[in-house]
Amino acid sequence: MMLSNQALDQFRDAWHAAEGEDFASRLQRQSLEVLASENDALRPVLFELTNRAQSELDLHLDGETVHNHEANAESFASLVHGLADATKEVAKHILGRQRRASTLRVLAPSPGSVRVVLKAAPPEEAPGKTAQNTRTPSVDSTSLDTVAVLLSRAQHEGASLTDDVLSGLAADLPQKAHAGLKRVARAIDEQNWDIAGELRSQHGFQPLHVGPLGAKALLRVLDERQESSDVARLDGVIDGQRRSVGALWFTPDGAAAIEAAVPSPELMEQVVQHDAANARVRAVFDVVTIVGKGANARRRQVYTLRSIEPLPEAPMLI
Predict the structure, then answer these.
(1) pTM for the full predicted model
(2) Would you tell me how many other CB atoms lie within 10 Å of the CB of residue 231?
(3) Contact, 143 vs 264, CB < 8 A?
(4) Which of 24, 85, 191, 205 would you label with 77, given CA atoms 20 to 30 Å apart?
(5) Where are the alpha helices (DSSP H) in the chain?
(6) Residues 124, 132: Cα–Cα separation, whole Å
(7) Element (H, E) at 198
(8) Contact, 83 vs 61, CB < 8 A?
């Protein structure tokens, strides 16, 4: 059942009004949770409210080396350590810091599955100082989104050697994040794991899948070298987008369509809005020349979106 934006806002207002610890507030929250469980449109809203706008990455391990809900402990540790390290390095890069502790947390594994759930801890709030409707994702939450989209894109590229979006997403990350991502990819590849899961964030629930094919693709692009970079400012139209794999299809005026990486959830939200409005836009891209590894390495250009805005409507001639 689809709900209007007004109905979703009313649900949020009802939850905020019941955030106390008295019996009536707890009872009201329980009623709202039951209501959300019966409507798919309310599930992401409830998650946003209960997690105070912070993201959560839920991964389930499967594959030929997973037996009786058991997996190799050392490789599992490498997977978790790699994800946490990559997320921390992305966060440090965003903040421009050399040192910073991660706020990521691991939820207790569920019985009967090999599963890991990573979540960003909500920032501390002074009582009565933070308005509930102004809560925003922390830098660790945003960084976890970035790492999850990269993993999801890796599996997509594993099926197509001509796809350059993964290279664009990887090139946009700080080099120190590559080490953690390599640990993740090697663990998946060596154990032949097939990982399915979900990224839950304020932007909704996005399915994620990465297996040995995607891990090999990720290892390949992490070994690529950036040869040069330029900036392209192009006017045109959005020809499609996929939030789950960080991709934008863009047709510039008088030129062939390009596929570009969209490196952040906030930028992707702008793309989605402009696409829905069917607006002509001006987009700014980083254009990076990438060189692969090996004697017959390919040299190619990859596009990463930096900004996008609607073009002013042309004045009507009378």
Answers:
(1) 0.84
(2) 9
(3) no
(4) 205
(5) 5-17, 23-37, 43-50, 73-95, 139-158, 165-171, 175-191, 212-222, 265-276
(6) 13
(7) strand 193-201
(8) no
Query: DSSP labels for 88-135?
Result: HHHHHHHHT-S-----EEEPPPPTTS-EEEEEEPPPP--TTTS-GGG-
User: Quick one: how far is CA 104 from the chain centroid?
Assistant: 15
The residue count for the chain: 318
> Which DSSP string do the residues of 267-309 spell out, in sequence order?
HHHHHHHHHHTT-EEEEEEEEEEEE-SSTT--EEEEEEEEEEE
AA identity, residue 228 = S
